Amino acid sequence: MSLDGDAWQARFRGFETEAWRLETLPAYNVPQEAAELRAFRAGERIDPQTHSNEYTDDLKRVRREGKVKGRVHIVTRPFSEYLRYEFMYYLPHARAGEDVRIMDVTDRPNPLAGVTDYWMFDKKEVVLMNYLPDGTQIDRTVFEGDIGPFIEYQRIAIAGSVPFEEYVKGIGA
Hints:
Layout: H1 5-14, E1 18-23, H2 34-41, H3 54-64, E2 68-75, H4 81-95, E3 99-104, E4 118-121, E5 125-131, E6 137-142, H5 148-159, E7 162-163, H6 164-171
């Protein structure tokens, strides 16, 4: 089943304990981010200490409700322009309550090579995030099989990653 619109947004309104994401690409071609990415290219930066938007407000709501939202982004250096842009937003997201983690596989084998991006909700449902090589999203589809391997991918990703703030301190960013 392909997910769009309200059916997709309902996943984020209706999860009970955890919404978790694996990100594997160095760049995503997201039309809704085009203006922000152009501003970033032009040298504009947000203040990560004070930045607030609909997403950070929702993260605070999730945390108030005792739920967890998290992600691991698998990266290699040097960072793509898109990753530098995205990293700018990770700090306010982490401060608003998202468990943002980085798995840097620059100098080691990627234990999740070949695993596609996905969201997992309450360790009960997996939604595959399907992309073209340039990061353009093809679709989102509900995975219809055993989600056990995705729970294991999450375990591996978390074990092999560090919290975002710790990561950027370690690389001097």
